[in-house]
Queue: 2 jobs
Job 1
Amino acid sequence: MMKSFGSKPLAFPTPTWVIGSYDADGKANVMTAAWGGIVSSEPPCIGVSLRESRHSYESILARGGFTISVPDAAHAREADYFGMASGRDRDKFAVSGLTPAKAEFVDAPYVAEFPMIIECRLIQSVELGIHIQLIGEIADVKVNEDVLNADGKPDMELVAPLIFAPGARTYHTVGKAIGKAFSLGKDLL
Amino acid sequence: MMKSFGSKPLAFPTPTWVIGSYDADGKANVMTAAWGGIVSSEPPCIGVSLRESRHSYESILARGGFTISVPDAAHAREADYFGMASGRDRDKFAVSGLTPAKAEFVDAPYVAEFPMIIECRLIQSVELGIHIQLIGEIADVKVNEDVLNADGKPDMELVAPLIFAPGARTYHTVGKAIGKAFSLGKDLL
């Protein structure tokens, strides 16, 4: 039997992404967002949705760019904190003990300890009720060499990105690889 | 050391979502998309990006709605197949042996065997290079009663959504819950 949950922002999986920006004082700030995803392959673009009231919102608009730092499961506590505190009244990097690093292609900081970083140039905003979707063109993706597979590609089990479940509001690790895309279903073609 | 991958659509995690629509002949069709995510809480909206050339694209525009069926890991083969074949020249439900069910609130079919279904009314399209992001207002979320937790909420380990890793192009299961959001990082506040 299916149970109906009504009109709710509920879907699995959602990411746990830490959005980096410099505020008007030049202070490195981060906030956590679960409403986001890749939106286009060419140009490569990614979208993240923020409330307009967020301190990060005006920072990103002013500097025209942001980063996404993908936390691994070992940093769930810090990622959770980044989603609760506001950068208006505190320095979240200092409190967490994590290190801001300046991005290479955009005017924004990222979390040096996290395994995967996406640098984004803001190219479009889409108003959607209480959220604004900021669409960034991906300028570069940086991945820690320790989490690459034998082919030199990022290995999702090694990156171990934090996954968020809306509704139950739990964080999860990623599990085992169960097969290759564009291959597992070939026998049905 | 960080390795730079350049300007690529590469970020972890991405979902593996099966998009359902009826085509001009009334045939139930499905396609798999990994470029998507929740985009707004109020109204609750979700975005999925398709190429305009996809058979599903004109179907969704014509009927003004679509569904997202979230495959569990046990259906990785069928989900992979749905992403490779075109509904223009075959009946993907018939080939896969899965069952189309008519959605309750939108004019679109979903996959009856999958554990989580999101019914979406198309409210906006965003052009982004070779992809169009279709934004749907969530009309209802249905979840199989067998995959709810003790509080009656969908349990992400039990739903077992398929997770996709761009780059390596691997499918993964979701791992263990490692804590509660808005709680794990409270001691840093």
Job 2
Amino acid sequence: MTGKDGMITQVDDIGWEKHLAARARRMESSVIRELLKLTAQPDMISFAGGLPAPDFFPIREVEEACHYVLQNQGRTALQYSPTEGFEPLKEWLADTMSRYGIWVEPDNILMVNGSQQALDLIGKLFVDPGTRILCSRPTYLGAIQAWDAYEADYQTVPMDDQGMIIEGLPEALDKSQHRPRFVYVLPNFHNPAGTTLTLERRKQLVDIARRYDLVIIEDDPYGELRFDEEDITPIFRLAPERTIYLSTFSKTLAPGFRLAWVVAPKPIISRLVQAKQGADLNTGAFVQMVAYDICERGILRQHVRRLRGVYRSRRDAMVDALHEHMPQGVSWTVPQGGLFLWVRTSDQIDTRDFMQKSIAAKVAYVPGFAFYPGGKGGEHSMRMNFSYSNEETINEGIHRLGMAMKKELAGG
Amino acid sequence: MTGKDGMITQVDDIGWEKHLAARARRMESSVIRELLKLTAQPDMISFAGGLPAPDFFPIREVEEACHYVLQNQGRTALQYSPTEGFEPLKEWLADTMSRYGIWVEPDNILMVNGSQQALDLIGKLFVDPGTRILCSRPTYLGAIQAWDAYEADYQTVPMDDQGMIIEGLPEALDKSQHRPRFVYVLPNFHNPAGTTLTLERRKQLVDIARRYDLVIIEDDPYGELRFDEEDITPIFRLAPERTIYLSTFSKTLAPGFRLAWVVAPKPIISRLVQAKQGADLNTGAFVQMVAYDICERGILRQHVRRLRGVYRSRRDAMVDALHEHMPQGVSWTVPQGGLFLWVRTSDQIDTRDFMQKSIAAKVAYVPGFAFYPGGKGGEHSMRMNFSYSNEETINEGIHRLGMAMKKELAGG
């Protein structure tokens, strides 16, 4: 109803639920998003988000690039642009990806609004109600959220410290009455598990995908943020005929641009382009051209080198602090790169219930259940982000968490 | 297959079609997008796109805003941000919309990546396979494209020069076995028809929506670009309890920002936020903050005033040129604002077939069929954009089109 000044003070509820599509009933607000709101309190140390370190954003370089793009190509930057993406940026990406084994043409690339949009468009193209998806448990919660909206079903595979366990997979597929349509993999510095899939397992997975005619979704947001050892051949390189590869500028340049890309065989890029036309017409030309300027001047490469050093040192700080402050029986992964590690608590702690006490102690994490389709599993696990906070804060946060856990184990 | 240097020279087709979801089979590339590619030839005069005039983009002001935002809030601008949108921008919008009768709070607003994303999210929330949508014929092709992807069905209503014909609608609804879930309306300067729905008809439509329990989608991208007469009360104002209102910066500021917004009752905003989390997490903070700076400094208001003058004069140029160059029997709408007018040719011309001859004569339009669900209808109509080209070019283009039509009518 509108009040006398026209302001809507109270609007009748027309019973919106009955107007909604069936899929809308399965959508839920992301656990992470809701948690982030809780953790916005002052003095909170949050390991919950997946945020890059804002102190290291290349702000001055972005400003120079904005200036250059607007001065020289302002009329193109502010106009509608092709759905496929800004061609010079796609050429730069094709060239750059060849260094880590992905040899493609610009026409194999589609620019999207963050990798989350790639996950959504893949859902739109490949997921019917009840379509089965093969993935690790745990797996990236954003993927679950994207595909739940298309009423997906999941077949999950356990993980160890080398990533998804491939042994036993053919038997599980043979036994399952309902064959998955695709397999979703995060091969490098898995979110949330922090593990890296070995080359041997990548090859085994490709063999299985070929045998069972599975499409492979290779989600690689952190691949360039490797601290230790050597790059491992991407799955795309091993099976270019059936792999859709996702990468992003969110972790290397800045998430505020919402800029990521998909690499796939051309018939699939055409389909993704159609889906993106209906979803949002095109990714903004302005941010693409600014990102291109930064890439092309060699700034991104330098910047990534710097970030690797910063994040390595923060990972080390978190691992050292875990050694120092955690009670007996707690273990964790030591990722070779990326933003996250995965902590396994003792069986006495349910990380979902314990969240409240942790927040009271002014430290936050994401409880493991958020990374399991349907929320079943991960009761004794938590995801910890080490990219956002500096070493001192990390140590203090882990100290608080360890204290709270010890108190809990001693009976609260 | 990978060649000896690792480049993917030829990739086996694994038979992707069989992996696709049912809905993907209904997706087609936008006719407009494909046409735009054809019309990229030199010397072509294109009335086909829906592009704002690039000569008038406020490039210097955008540059100043980028500078200000990065200098003062760079760490926020480049980081992840709330799905709901940048709060100060939503406050500014709530305040500004109150001038034309939409009195809401910032929590009634969701920022999206262009209105096309709003159409997509509405499809995701409200469209099951076979869900019926009530809309005018013709209607906006981007809406058809968004909702075809969710396997919508359409019930269409004819239009006259005052917009959708409401008389007869209750009878049509009573007769139809399958009740529509929502009605889609473009009340101001309709795309493609150029018509404006009268206040009387808006009220009748609201009565019908209440009687038949229909949600109303009010798509208003051009409302601020009114050249003549007075603003007409938005439908949202008449039925705030059941209307979802869409507007955008693409036509007033710049499409390259990909920035638009949805106004709706709060329970629907919450649902849209959930859908957007799965679709792309959030709209870029950077472009939202830059847009806010431009709005807040009063630049947008000045700029829109200027655009109204420019586009009015271009509309006049097109109407004058049509009078001068069109053969007998051709008619057109004279829109009170916006970017488009709608031409009805004589029955001897099929605008889809004629397209080829028109392109040969170096002038392009969008054939009417593109604006009819299923492509059935509009054989003797075409959409003409008058915002992109200057007066001289408009006159030359209409001259070419008139010549080509006269030649066609004289037997080719």
